[in-house]
Amino acid sequence: PRPVDTAAEGLAWAGGWDALGRLLAESDIVVLCLPLKPETRHMIGAEQLAAMQPDAILVNVSRGPLVDPVALHAALTAGRIG
Predict the structure, then answer these.
(1) pLDDT digits (tens, 9 = 90+) for 27-79
(2) How far is it, in rounded angstroms, from Cα 24 to Cα 17?
(3) DSSP 3-state assignment of 22?
(4) What is residue 67's three-state secondary structure?
(5) What is the CA radius of gyration of the chain?
(6) What are the φ/ψ torsions at residue 80 (nearest 5 degrees)?
(7) 9 membership: H or E segment, kind and range
(8) What gap in Å lies between CA 34 and CA 54, rounded to an integer?
(9) Are 80 and 49 in contact (CB under 8 A)?
(10) Buried b (16+ CB within 10 A) or exposed e, 38-64
(11) Which of the chain's termini has less CB crowding within 10 Å, N or C?
């Protein structure tokens, strides 16, 4: 993918898959709006949920399998995310 000109877009920063950890760590609310494909299935798992802030909120407006349900249950039960 081509780099995003953050100044032109009015963004503080932008990134691809390689920046997902930073996005999750810095975001208060994460909204998933992606198609379900082999490469996006369970893209949010235990590692990604652990990277999120304890009061972060995950909103999935796409297909359920983007999030690993076992990892999500564990994170919610442990109070790891909001």
Answers:
(1) 888 899 989 999 999 999 999 999 999 999 999 999 889 999 999 999 999 98
(2) 11
(3) helix
(4) strand
(5) 13
(6) -70, -30
(7) helix 6-9
(8) 24
(9) yes
(10) eebeebbeeebbebbeeebebebeeee
(11) N
* Residue 26 token pair: 């810095």
| The residue count for the chain | 82
Nearest to 48 by CA among 28, 31, 23, 77: 23
Chain centroid to CA 73: how far? 16
55 token code pair: 């009061």
Amino acid at 4: V
Query: How far is 12 from 29, CA to CA, in rounded Å?
Result: 16
**Residue type present at position 61:** V
AA identity, residue 64: G
The encoded tokens of residue 34 equal 């992606």
Instruction: For 65-79, write each residue's pLDDT tens digit.
Output: 999 999 999 999 998
What number of CA atoms fall less than 13 Å from residue 24's CA on the CB side? 22
